[in-house]
Amino acid sequence: MRVPIAHDLPKDTVRNRLKSRSHKIRDFVPGGMADVETSWPDEDCMNLSVSTMGQRVDGKVLIEENQVVFEVNLPPALSFVEPMVAKAIASQGQRMLADKSGD
Fold first, then answer.
1. Higher confidence at residue 42 or residue 33?
2. pTM of the predicted model as reported, rounded to 2 decimal places
3. 103 lies in a domain?
């Protein structure tokens, strides 16, 4: 699943906001009961792994000039929640990029 989020920010600003706010990804998961691990294989890609309720979801966030793309690999058992997950990523992803994110 790919969820693009448009932005008009410099890439450095996007990187800094994602790095400083990546701990908020656990808030994307209902109930906040998730373990989230992130790593940066390069400056424009953040890998992530989210584990909750016995399921693990891997993905990455790609920083592009005019958009950030969340790529998430949902396991087949969770494919039915894809529309809800995409909507939550779009909403929360915008908040992560916003100037005021409640840091």
1. 42
2. 0.86
3. no
